[in-house]
Amino acid sequence: MNVRDQEHALNGPPGAASGAADRARDGAPAVTTPQVLLSAQRFRVETVYRADAAGNVRQREVVRHPGAVTIVPLVADQHVCLIRNYRVAVARTLIELPAGTLEPPEDPQVTAARELQEETGYRAGQLTPIHAFYLSPGILDERMHLYLATQLTPGEARREAGEEIENLIVPWPQAIQWVRTGTIEDAKTIVGLLLCEALRRDGRLPAA
Hints:
By secondary structure, the chain is α+β, with helices and mostly antiparallel strands. It has helices at 3-11, 108-120, 172-181, 187-201; strands at 35-39, 44-51, 57-64, 68-76, 79-87, 92-96, 99-101, 123-134, 143-153, 165-171. A hairpin with a 4-residue loop joins strand 5 and strand 6 (92-96).
């Protein structure tokens, strides 16, 4: 079946799309209920249908995710606590900021405090929201909430079984240099460090 035939099969008879029920957030008609292809522990994959401006119905496969947090822990004014984290998906150990998945209806700041302690052992006296952003909106609706953690108190990490994580405390300039040289490849870590570096250069980054 070619693309035109596929679209006709989805559209049905002329005028079918115009009778769609609920409207999406930006006003375009939602053609039918999404179909769940896969339900996993932390996400699900759906086929969603959407009518374009010409009335043609398109289908996309998207990943639904509850969202996540990532934390920039300032150990001192000139040092940051990164982690080495083995990632099964890429079969490599990456240098990252600590992070974790939201557990709705939990507030992201509560998640950030918990994940920081579980992954690094540090407790934050202050968590400052910096930004929130979509990681890969072409296929994924995960929204990442970025926090700066200051006034840290060290403690014992409580990592989940199977996690291969170790703390990596480095001078702040070195962390930024690793972004520039490609040593750091994790997207949320690149975003978090560069956003905080911009605030630091503007004199708006809270002290550790």
